[in-house]
Amino acid sequence: MTFDTLGKAALHQMLLTATCRRCGRQAKFVAEDLARVYGSSRNPHTLPFKCTTCDAKDCEVRLMGLPFDRKPDTIIWRPTKGRR
């Protein structure tokens, strides 16, 4: 199944991982949280991620199931809309 909207990904309790193509830094978000901020009809691959390490805006977005055996040191970020 393809998840072309945040609403579909949230319905299936997906985790979104944004990986910077320049430096490799990763950030993980719960799709439901992103759907609240950006709207449930938004395509997850068009979200405006920006790397906090190298300031690049070129990020690869992947969706995966929310792992039940998540490691305690895994950080899941909460989305916020900042100034542009």
What does the oligomeric state look like here? single chain
Class by alpha and beta content: alpha+beta
Tell me what portion of residues adopts beta-strand conformation: 25-35%
Can you tell me the number of structural domains? 1
The total strand number stands at: 4
What is the element string, with H for helices and E for strands? HEEHEE
Distance between the termini: 34 Å
Which ranges are low-confidence, i.e. pLDDT below 50, for 5 or more consecutive residues?
none
Biggest sheet record: 4 strands, mixed
What would you report as the Rg, rounded to the nearest angstrom? 12 Å
Summarize the amount of helix as a percent range.
10-25%
Shape: globular
Mean pLDDT level: 85
Work out the helix count.
2
Instruction: Write out the strand line-up for the largest beta sheet, numbering strands in chain order.
Output: 3-1-2-4
